């Protein structure tokens, strides 16, 4: 994500959601955000339903997923 670092918004804490990546300061996982987007929710709808989130956090979830995908290697 050009000009932004998703690590400012995404954390992995073994004591939160079983160590899955979550939005900092919440228990909302990256998977949750990606699932909502994949199921057709718009960023605006997500922000209405979860006012504790920001647009930048949603974009950081996408950037995190893109980075993970980029780093996958077939053995």
TrEMBL record:
<dbReference type="InterPro" id="IPR036388">
    <property type="entry name" value="WH-like_DNA-bd_sf"/>
</dbReference>
<dbReference type="InterPro" id="IPR007367">
    <property type="entry name" value="DUF433"/>
</dbReference>
<dbReference type="Pfam" id="PF04255">
    <property type="entry name" value="DUF433"/>
</dbReference>
<dbReference type="InterPro" id="IPR009057">
    <property type="entry name" value="Homeodomain-like_sf"/>
</dbReference>
<protein>
    <submittedName>
        <fullName>DUF433 domain-containing protein</fullName>
    </submittedName>
</protein>
């Amino acid at each position: 994500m050009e000009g932004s670092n998703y690590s400012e918004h995404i954390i992995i804490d073994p004591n939160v959601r079983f160590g899955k990546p979550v939005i900092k300061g919440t228990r909302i996982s990256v998977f949750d955000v990606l699932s909502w987007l994949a199921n057709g929710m718009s960023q605006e709808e997500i922000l209405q339903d979860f006012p504790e989130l920001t647009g930048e956090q949603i974009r950081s979830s996408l950037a995190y997923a893109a980075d993970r995908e980029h780093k996958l290697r077939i053995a």
